């Protein structure tokens, strides 16, 4: 594996509750690609999309739904994140996506940057909503839940994982448009 081995950090199953999935915590990274562009504009909640290769390599037990965890861009700081995996029923997308909202205010957008994430826990299934407002309210509740859960000592440990300090600064070596090698999957898959 070009980015190092599997994490040595273990997280107690009990903290995941009923939705325990054996593949969590799940580490992956990939270049940020363009989504449908609604995240910032319509929702006021910017999301970073992973390339198809990352979406297609998800282990089978990581189903669609909303997750929380940690994320960093390039070699930057590690922040809390929430992620939506699936077809966005509100928008009736036909393509499965993995969209990460990093809980931090960035000055610029990050297309082409390397996004590293560890998915730590599951929040809820994806669902449709009667209005855009209701979707935004649900996402804000997800952010609040992630904020609280990630302060748990078992989760804070993952923030310090070597995975984040070993992020290759590929964009300074290879232009993002040709960096097919950047979409490598971690976790030994
Ligand atoms: C934490 C989080 C939860 C989400 N939950 C849902 C959901 O329950 N249903 C849904 O249709 N979309 C959900 N979304 C996806 C948004 O609809 C999506 O991020 C938005 O359409 C922007 O997509 P785009 O960047 O591809 O344009 C969620 C996104 C995030 C970050």
From TrEMBL:
UniProt-listed Pfam families: Flavokinase
EC number per UniProt: 2.7.1.26
Origin: domain of life: Eukaryota
Domain Riboflavin kinase: 21-151
GO terms for biological process, alphabetical: FMN biosynthetic process; riboflavin biosynthetic process
GO terms for MF: ATP binding; metal ion binding; riboflavin kinase activity
Enzyme class: transferase
Required cofactor(s): Zn(2+)
Cross-referenced Gene3D superfamilies: Riboflavin kinase-like (2.40.30.30)
GO CC aspect terms: mitochondrion
Recorded catalytic activity of this chain's protein: riboflavin + ATP = FMN + ADP + H(+)
Involved pathway(s): Cofactor biosynthesis; FMN biosynthesis; FMN from riboflavin (ATP route): step 1/1
Chain positions covered by the region annotation Disordered: 169-189
SUPFAM superfamilies with a match to the protein in the record: Riboflavin kinase-like
InterPro entries in alphabetical order: Riboflavin_kinase, Riboflavin_kinase_bac/euk, Riboflavin_kinase_dom_sf
Keywords assigned: ATP-binding, Flavoprotein, FMN, Kinase, Metal-binding, Nucleotide-binding, Transferase, Zinc
Biological role stated in the UniProt entry: Catalyzes the phosphorylation of riboflavin (vitamin B2) to form flavin-mononucleotide (FMN), hence rate-limiting enzyme in the synthesis of FAD. Essential for TNF-induced reactive oxygen species (ROS) production. Through its interaction with both TNFRSF1A and CYBA, physically and functionally couples TNFRSF1A to NADPH oxidase. TNF-activation of RFK may enhance the incorporation of FAD in NADPH oxidase, a critical step for the assembly and activation of NADPH oxidase.
Name by which UniProt lists this protein: Riboflavin kinase
Lineage start: Eukaryota, Metazoa, Chordata, Craniata, Vertebrata
């Amino acid at each position: 594996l070009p980015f190092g081995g599997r994490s040595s950090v273990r997280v107690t199953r009990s903290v995941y509750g009923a939705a325990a999935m054996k593949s969590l915590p799940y580490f992956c990274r990939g270049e940020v690609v363009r989504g449908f562009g609604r995240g910032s504009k319509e929702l006021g909640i910017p999301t970073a999309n992973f390339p198809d290769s990352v979406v297609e390599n998800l282990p089978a037990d990581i189903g669609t739904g909303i997750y929380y965890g940690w994320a960093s861009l390039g070699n930057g700081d590690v922040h809390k994140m929430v992620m939506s995996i699936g077809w966005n029923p509100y928008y009736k997308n036909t393509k499965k996506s993995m969209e990460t909202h990093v809980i931090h205010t960035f000055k610029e957008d990050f297309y082409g940057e390397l996004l590293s994430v560890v998915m730590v826990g599951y929040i809820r299934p994806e669902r449709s909503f009667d209005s855009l407002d209701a979707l935004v309210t649900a996402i804000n509740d997800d952010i609040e839940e992630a904020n609280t859960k990630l302060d748990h000592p078992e989760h804070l440990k993952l923030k310090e994982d070597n995975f984040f300090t070993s992020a290759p600064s590929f964009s300074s070596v290879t232009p993002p448009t040709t960096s097919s090698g950047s979409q490598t999957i971690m976790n030994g898959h």
